[in-house]
Amino acid sequence: TIGRGDRVVFKNEDIIPHSATAKEAGGFDSDMIKAGESWSITPDREGSIKYACKYHPTMEGTIVVEGP
Length: 68
Fold this sequence. Notes:
By secondary structure, this protein is mostly beta strands. It has strands at residues 2-3, 8-11, 21-22, 38-41, 47-52, 60-66. The chain is globular, with a radius of gyration of 12 Å.
C-alpha cells in the first residue's frame, strides 16, 4: 500500500530477467528487467493495480494506491 504519487521500484535481484506488467489493458509494462537492473513507476490515481511477470505469470502482486 502506497500513497498517490509515491514511487514504486521493481528491482531484479534474480539471475534471470523478469517484468512488471499490469494486468489491466493500457496499464504499465516494464518490458524486460535484466538481472541487477530496476524499473520504477509513480501511480497517479487511487485504486488497486494487479501486476505479474510476463515471463513467469505465477509471480504476481497488487499495488494499492491510497490518497495523499
